[in-house]
Amino acid sequence: MSRHVFYSLHYDADRARGELIRKLPGLTPNLEAKPAEWATIARTGEFAFKRWLEQQLRGRSCTVVLIGAESALRPAIQYEIKRSWELRLGLVGVHIHALRDAKGMQGTKGLNPFEQPESGLDANAALVRAYDPPEIDSKLAYRFIADNLAQWVEQAVASRLAQP
Hints:
This protein is α/β, with parallel strands linked by helices. The chain has one domain: 3-Layer(aba) Sandwich (Rossmann fold). Helix content is 43%, strand content 15%. It has five helices and five strands. Strand 1, helix 1 and strand 2 (27-29) form a beta-alpha-beta unit. The longest helix has 24 residues, at 138-161. The two termini are 25 Å apart.
């Protein structure tokens, strides 16, 4: 069964890395906001973003946070985590700094966004896993993520359903 997931990421910094992950088979991604659409949402304000997010989370069973260098400090990502938890979706993080971006560059490892106070998880942060591929080579890191992401999503959904 293909899980329907929402991918949370720092759009400007990690979009190219995110595209690699979104194309993996076995998971059905949310519709990606195109650059012009995202610019309109950002320009329109918080209400437009929240309305867009509610539409994106509808019918999803898990939120996959693609963790880049700046992800943990992004208010939108923190809100996506908080709202996903409130909706009882599975939550899982994947560090993507080893993947190459559109310019062929790797990034630096970012903080765990689930451990940030703004995530709203507080003591529940320990229940959410953030995976860091052990590979430093981009292709090997991608393969590690590709081989494991569907299983991580299943575990996150099962873990969340087991919570009160």
